[in-house]
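REVIEWER CHECKLIST
Item 1: Sequence provided? yes
Item 2: Single chain? yes
Item 3: Sequence as submitted:
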Amino acid sequence: MVALNHSEMAVTLPSDTEIMLTRTFQAPRQLVFAVHTTPEHIRKWWGCGGSTMSVCEMDFRVGGAWHFVLQTPDGSEHPFNGIYQEIREPERLAYTFIYDVEGIRDFPALETLTFEEHEGRTTLTAVIKHRTPEARDGHLQSGFKQGSAESFNRLDEYLQSLL
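Item 4: Structure as written out by the authors:
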């Protein structure tokens, strides 16, 4: 397993098709889970690079779809979508993840989030499972580490504003 540190987020590669992100937040698990599963919360933190969320639609149930569109300061739009596979409040969430642009949309991943609380702090672990090593490596080379770290930093700030 290769470990790469980026900001306060740890990135590991548990297999040739998986990426694992881990970050601990100074907030209770129920709250960290809630801000991942409610559109009004997600709009406040999801994304990076000065982006805003122009679309945040969620049918939050197993089999339900989600659809987000980020708009960057230059006006470009970045659509993401998927289907919820598992919901176990407040401990686990799994869904397909597709960056819905030409050349990438054909490589969906399965993202599984686990939320573990200890003494009022929540460790969030995200495992992103790709179908092939090439898809995983493409994801690694996409700049996602910086984007994920920025998004987690925004999440941390947002959680602190809610406490």
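Item 5: Key structural point noted by reviewer: Strands lie at 2-6, 9-15, 18-25, 52-58, 65-71, 77-88, 92-99, 109-118, 121-129.
Item 6: Recommendation: ____
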